[in-house]
Amino acid sequence: xxxxxxxxxxxxxxxxxxxxxxxxxxxxxxxxxxxxxxxxxxxxxxxxxxxxxxxxxxxxxxxxxxxxxxxxxxxxxxxxxxxxxxxxxxxxxxxxxxxxxxxxxxxxxxxxxxxxxxxxxxxxxxxxxxxxxxxxxxxxxxxxxxxxxxxxxxxxxxxxxxxxxxxxxxxxxxxxxxxxxxxxxxxxxxxxxxxxxxxxxxxxxxxxxxxxxxxxxxxxxxxxxxxxxxxxxxxxxxxxxxxxxxxxxxxxxxxxxxxxxxxxxxxxxxxxxxxxxxxxxxxxxxxxxxxxxxxxxxxxxxxxxxxxxxxxxxxxxxxxxxxxxxxxxxxxxxxxxxxxxxxxxxxxxxxxxxxxxxxxxxxxxxxxxxxxxxxxxxxxxxxxxxxxxxxxxxxxxxxxxxxxxxxxxxxxxxxxxxxxxxxxxxxxxxxxxxxxxxxxxxxxxxxxxxxxxxxxxxxxxxxxxxxxxxxxxxxxxxxxxxxxxxxxxxxxxxxxxxxxxxxxxxxxxxxxxxxxxxxxxxxxxxxxxxxxxxxxxxxxxxxxxxxxxxxxxxxxxxxxxxxxxxxxxxxxxx
Amino acid sequence: xxxxxxxxxxxxxxxxxxxxxxxxxxxxxxxxxxxxxxxxxxxxxxxxxxxxxxxxxxxxxxxxxxxxxxxxxxxxxxxxxxxxxxxxxxxxxxxxxxxxxxxxxxxxxxxxxxxxxxxxxxxxxxxxxxxxxxxxxxxxxxxxxxxxxxxxxxxxxxxxxxxxxxxxxxxxxxxxxxxxxxxxxxxxxxxxxxxxxxxxxxxxxxxxxxxxxxxxxxxxxxxxxxxxxxxxxxxxxxxxxxxxxxxxxxxxxxxxxxxxxxxxxxxxxxxxxxxxxxxxxxxxxxxxxxxxxxxxxxxxxxxxxxxxxxxxxxxxxxxxxxxxxxxxxxxxxxxxxxxxxxxxxxxxxxxxxxxxxxxxxxxxxxxxxxxxxxxxxxxxxxxxxxxxxxxxxxxxxxxxxxxxxxxxxxxxxxxxxxxxxxxxxxxxxxxxxxxxxxxxxxxxxxxxxxxxxxxxxxxxxxxxxxxxxxxxxxxxxxxxxxxxxxxxxxxxxxxxxxxxxxxxxxxxxxxxxxxxxxxxxxxxxxxxxxxxxxxxxxxxxxxxxxxxxxxxxxxxxxxxxxxxxxxxxxxxxxxxxxxxxxxxxxxxxxxxxxxxxxxxxxxxxxxxxxxxxxxxxxxxxxxxxxxxxxxxxxxxxxxxxxxxxxxxxxxxxxxxxxxxxxxxxxxxxxxxxxxxxxxxxxxxxxxxxxxxxxxxxxxxxxxxxxxxxxxxxxxxxxxxxxxxxxxxxxxxxxxxxxxxxxxxxxxxxxxxxxxxxxxxxxxxxxxxxxxxxxxxxxxxxxxxxxxxxxxxxxxxxxxxxxxxxxxxxxxxxxxxxxxxxxxxxxxxxxxxxxxxxxxxxxxxxxxxxxxxxxxxxxxxxxxxxxxxxxxxxxxxxxxxxxxxxxxxxxxxxxxxxxxxxxxxxxxxxxxxxxxxxxxxxxxxxxxxxxxxxxxxxxxxxxxxxxxxxxxxxxxxxxxxxxxxxxxxxxxxxxxxxxxxxxxxxxxxxxxxxxxxxxxxxxxxxxxxxxxxxxxxxxxxxxxxxxxxxxxxxxxxxxxxxxxxxxxxxxxxxxxxxxxxxxxxxxxxxxxxxxxxxxxxxxxxxxxxx
Lengths: 574, 1089
Known about the structure:
The structure holds two protein chains of two kinds. Chain A is mainly α. Chain A has helices spanning 2-17, 21-24, 42-49, 53-56, 103-114, 122-147, 162-165, 172-189, 207-229, 232-252, 293-296, 307-312, 333-336, 343-347, 397-411, 416-421, 423-427, 463-475, 482-488, 555-563, and strands spanning 33-34, 81-82, 276-280, 304-305, 348-353, 367-369, 392-396, 438-439, 445-447, 450-451, 508-510, 528-530.
């Protein structure tokens, strides 16, 4: 009994000490951080900044993503690719659209708002604010590219801020002016070096990454303003920004033309490549990231390049096939690939057609791409499936040169010196060695002092601009630019397969040269002719409405705004 | 442990009886109907503290003092009897079995069944788990308890079924777990029922309503399952029982592939829709064309059904033509991958006994199950030891100790692919000609080859639990219980990857490439460990008093839990020797990960039970609860509940009917419980560390991602339950009916308070805003009768149903919910008024026929005038509707089939076509016993459940170049216009489009009726076995899943199947391609020494 009482006392004492129950019940996370208390050091801010990278710089994407970050046929709605079932222009207003997303805008705004509160130097605050503003600018530029007018936000929204949340779309020039301000700030304040000096410069956003992207973004917007809105003032302002940013990279950045064109796309390590401004790294191993683009240049069937693209390559005398005496015609693949711009051989498998029915890894047009294939690992498991570890260029000096020259040309200030600083540098790349592009006094393109004008030129495009656009198409082939370029030039009609039938044609073949019973292609004539990858008329893409230059806004957001008494205007024609 | 054993043995040797001399009476206590002795019955002399218990043969002796007029004989489950003391010195007492006098384990105590006021169900442990070849407790529970839903995603050994009570979700924040009741073993939570040996269970009750469960507070929001394990009984002599079960299982309802030629033809049809010139189907690296189809048919004709061995012959079974690879021979992957029969065994040994002062029980069990895999046999094992000792140290002090140790081992071949694309996914992925044989003695790349060459994963889980407790009996009627339990779990999974050698036919180019085709990332040694500690302390006082006709019972106490878990995984690539998977025998890049988590709860509770003449019953509960799941400002909540009962048969006015209706009670309860199962740290703006996907030279850059925006005040979700029930017994208690109706409303549910536009940029912060309401009923019936000739028959049955609706939710756009919203609660879209699990889709009219179209100049089919157009469902240029395709019904009569805006208010021609919640679940057991023979048949089923599934098994053409299934060959052709399936098309793995828009025609009807178990036993007569010193012996045959009736229309699925969690989370294409369910036959022996 006595012992019972003593136990009772002990128990009572224990219960009494439980006054600190709230303490017992407070269990903060052991392996997670909280917003409050996160923004305390440069290293934490840098950790946060990695959030943006794979989204902003997908490279070759990851795993079995057959979009490959937009590379190769990941973006095939254009005149470069000839698929069997070509993607059509958008036809309906979707109820939801994952691109109408503000996730990274909010993250960027959160970063921009929090960085100044961190106990770090003023210079560091400016640097990290610049990084945040760079990602915000990129994100908004992408939204404007897709949707046109778009609501601009410079701060993370509060859930009670109804006016802000249901804000109407801002005019695209307002958004792009803000993007320009962000880019300028970033270009001024983002450092050239990461806080970890050992980290390769091409793996993080530095001053020159900002400038390079600035040239890309404002070349787009400048030409858009020019060709879609005829707004000369804004067009010139943006084109000048693109020109300036490119020029800064060209004159202050320590970049040069890589000695091997293909090695920018199929290398296991791009760290030492002098042309790469930013790349996405891939590596094999648990917890690491691999892609499948090289695999699709390897033993897989692929969407082939169109006859139209093959014909865009110059002959090695610097002249278009329409005027060059070097051109052998297209009746055999060897003829097609004789005396041509060597970038053709770096991009396509030389002198070999891969035909459906004859080989496993056929191409829809016969012309097979090997730009992204690394032959050394082609037969190992790293070269197959989704195990590819080749690094992906995200932005390279070659593109910056092309941005510069196009901006200058669009500004009407083109000189021979500009061509020599850009296109002619690319043409002098070892292994390419194409003749210089010159401009005559009358503004016509010249090679070796002889003027020429491509009869295949779109009459709506000036001859010299036509050649600059050709150079861009060739230099950056399969790098995901073409569709965007057609959109900003207001030239989506090039992607209409019935107006422009060459984009639905492949190699010219004779059935009898192969095993006719096995050959699985449709030709323009029964026995011989061009391959027609998409023979069914209803499969062919046609441009019926110019509304497709902008994507429709998703219905669910329009309705939500309407329920809250605000009109979220749909794009024209949708 | 060893000491404890010795102590128990010492106890065994103690003698429990000591006779007095004067006025001693003796007696025997028998079961009235069985005429068998009752050991452990209590003999009490009223108004004294003197008493005794009966021994092994039901015998007792007790010393009487002058003035003792009566003795009272009682035993759990029997009606007590009071006998007048006469001159006789020997008494024979016959007790009448009565389920109303069963004592039921309830929260922090026991209650006589007749006096229950809440919704509490008990499980007949012996019938449910006794002689069935089941490997875990949960699987045995299907259909046994009304309101309890037990589902399994596949038949894989060692996986935990999902257990949910009274509806699936409870709250939208319970995520994948759903409305899972708190499972307590000996009053302390158990991490997994796998750790419990069914043979160790003594009692099993389920507390369903708030009034019954609320005393457990926060984590018992969705009810409580109370399991007690065996312990020794007072006055029970040493008893040794041994039982075993040997079982043989075979896979059932496995997917059956179509023949290779049929498959290729269907695939060709599908591709020709878009490309009429299509001449060959390419599947990974090999082809089928019309010549190949002819050769496949030839092969079937010449060799079909013959055993040609595994070696393949070039030219006959496969060949290269024009540098392309063709296979002609059909294989049955099921036969190659799985055994016909596989063995499983259980052995259980229990020693128990007790005296006045000390009781003990020791149980040892082993369960070993061989898996289905033939190539590299998998296995699942469980070993467990349970020891329980109770001692009465003083009159006022009982102490107890319990030790529970259990470990499970699961050994399976290493999987080179993620869980949702595991070996089963690949096994059923390819057409029948996919080569499972060898060529020149070497294998081809396949799921089979991988399994054959793989090392085995070793997954070992162990749980150790130590409980110490004491009961203080200070005053008459007052006792204080203090208990502390420490539970520790450990899991160690070791995995060794390595190469797989085979001809890689995924990527061939004119020759067979033989070699290792696995990613170097799989050439790895990996250890994953996790461990947890749970500390549980309980302290409570119970006071019982009676005055006059009033009985009162008070309980007040407090309990607390502190839980912490940690995990880590480490691995490194480049094995030096693939046969030796040790991390220090690797040379590659290391990769590590880990996690830590903890939580705590603390609560104070009180309960008052009041009974007036066992006629009017009242129970009040209150609980003041704190949980670390909530912010410091909102840690605490108070949750009261009340329940009442009225036993009408105790009323005088019911007298005239009591000869028919022997017992009738009405019950009602209302109460609230806090729910803390709302996810972790909902109240904090978490910056979650995770891999960014951006590789730096040192590895994947870690970033911190903002998970959510947080509302300033968040607190408990409150679960309010109304329960109305009735219990009735008829015909001298032989027939019983029990019914409960409930309404469970989860208020203050964490949900978005408003719909915010995308511009907010992060998920809308949660508030205590939403409301979800579940309603349903449970019915239980039992009947038992013993005929004069000794034949005893019995029937028990349950039927239950529950439906949940969202009664308050902020969502102004109301987009249609995802088709599997009810399964993947975390992935769904909800709106106010939505029934959980509802499936939206079109109503199917029929298949289009040629007569519905005209053909235009381009050769395209044009619908005749007057037929609603389906253009909106087409995808130019890949798919246009034509003959043989699905004709949907124009429900809104606007002349076109469309989705509207895919919202509830504008759903076009869509409507609710079904619901994935299992409805009207039932179970029924029939048993009979005669002269030692017994038979029991257990039937179980679900009367209504729909599923809109996904993947190639349910949708022909899902990936047209891959495997089609035998049942899908009934597709539309001009010569088969009344087919079940439409004209083939290639869906490119995109679900829910064209002919397979969610619709009534292909909605799976998952209702089923199953003969779950048939059990035939014989108990040897005592005379026969006494000679070999046995007290009891029974042999039996038992079979599981003997017969199934389903409505799947030939789709080769088990009707119990569900999406696995990894399929829900990732890719749903693998639905049905999982470990098979099994049918089992077994034999067993049960002996008591």
